[in-house]
Amino acid sequence: MSEPAQRPPIASAPISVLLFAHALSTDTAEALELWRRYLDTLNRPYEILLLQETRPEVTVEPPTPTARMRPILYERAVGFRAAVNEAIRAAQYPLVAFAPCDRQYAPDQLDALFKRIDR
C-alpha cells in the first residue's frame, strides 16, 4: 500500500475566516472587532468574510468593506447554503475557518486547530 501524499504545512498559512451573522444579532460589530484583534496578533495575511443575513422586515446595515473584511449579504428566504458556497469560492487564502458571529466561540480557540492541523 502506498504512503499518503505529503502536503506542505498549513498551520501558519494565510487564513480566511467566514463569520455568520443573523439579521437580528446585536453582537456582530463587537464580534467582528474581537476577530480582527485576534487575527492581527497572528502576523499573517487574513481576511474576514461576513455572511450577513438579511430579512425584508429587518433593516440591516452591513459594515463597510475594508481590505481585510468583506460582507456577503444573503436573504434568509434564499438560504444560507448559497451564501456559504459563495464565501468559500470568494476566499482568497488556503486555510478557511467558520464561526458564528454571536461570540459563541472565542477567536483564540483557533490556536488549538493550528497546533493540530499539520499532524
List keywords for this structure.
27% helix; 4 strands; single chain; 3 helices; four-stranded parallel sheet; alpha/beta; 119 residues
Overall radius of gyration: 16 Å
Q: Can you summarize the main beta sheet?
A: 4 strands, parallel
How many beta-strand segments? 4
Beta-strand portion reads 15-25%
Within the largest sheet, what's the order of strands?
3-2-1-4
Shape type: globular
How would you classify the helix and strand content by structural class?
A: alpha/beta
Number of contiguous helices: 3
Q: In percent, how helical is the residue content?
A: 25-40%
List SSEs in N-to-C order: EHEEHEH
> Between the first and last Cα atoms, what is the distance in angstroms?
20 Å
Q: Extract low-pLDDT stretches.
A: none
Q: What is the mean predicted local confidence, pLDDT?
A: 89
Structure description:
- It contains three helices and four strands; from the N terminus they run βαββαβα.
- The chain has 119 residues and is α/β, with parallel strands linked by helices.
- Strands 3-2-1-4 form a four-stranded parallel beta sheet, with helices on both faces.
- Helix 1 links the parallel strand 1 and strand 2.
